[in-house]
## 1
Amino acid sequence: MLNEIYDNAREQMKKSIEALKRDFSTLRTGKVTTNIVDHIRVDYYGTPTPLNQVGNVLAMDATTISITPWEKTMLAPIEKAIQSANIGVNPNNDGDFIKLYFPAMTSEQRQQIVKQAKSMSEKAKIAIRNIRKDANNDIKDLEKEKEISEDESKKAHTQIQKITDENVAEVDKILSTKQADILKV
């Protein structure tokens, strides 16, 4: 029973870390990646569709993303979706494809993005702590129902705290790596 609680807590905490990694992939670092446009949805004949499903999205170099739609009629909807996504650049439409030119980031912009990253990691830590709380409540319930002893309950709480500490440390490690990536010129 306790092993199920430990495994469930580990699994849920890993999901929180994976979500943090996905969130971090949308942040801009010194080099532009196509992940910046992953969250953009294009109106594809009335259906909100991910940008990478209506065209080819490529990072041309460190500051340019090129989007080549599979249908020429999609140029205008893609352009509109990019403008409304507010990613900090205006699309350049040349009739065949759209290019996004990202200017070099200022140190102020880098600091803002670091703040965003810290906020994202704090949310992940809160999610991990909530998972710990749920696991501890499950352990308390088992103790109340006399399915485990008080000593087993204390050991289980210690084990859950250990799992929590490991995952919080992982979040901190991921954050420091991302910070270094963002601040690198």
## 2
Amino acid sequence: MGYGILHIKNNKMSLIAMGSIELNKLDNYALKLKKIFERTMYLINEYKPDEFAIEAPFLGKNPQSMLKLGRAQGVSMAAALSKDIPVSEYAPKKIKQSITGKGTASKEQVAGMLKNILKLKSLPKHLDATDGLAVAVCHHFQLGKPASEKSYSGWDAFVKQNPKRTKS
């Protein structure tokens, strides 16, 4: 499972972190879900994102795989929601189209475009990491201006528009 974390300032993206959560060494599926939740919580606590985007579940050839993927995505979403971080979902075709202009692009094509868009010197060994990064870039492109860059007329306007981000 890949992830990508971006910093957006003045509508410009810069890469903060990208990687993948390695689950191959765990045999028990429940333990894999636990690790996904713990790693997602670690990333949230470490980087304190304002928004969270994830690839929506999709039906492939094997319904059992879709069920497992949906559970993994749900665990990750629950981690974000437990910290009151808004969650957005994007279909795989939407992500590919947003990055490459073609909804049927390969993982390699998406990775190559991300390398150009973010001016990366190299790509990670596993394309799961660039898949996660692609979701973050797609989210930025779809919103045009992330919530973290909204402008407010003052503290009262911020509190009114963000009740869960302030404590009384």
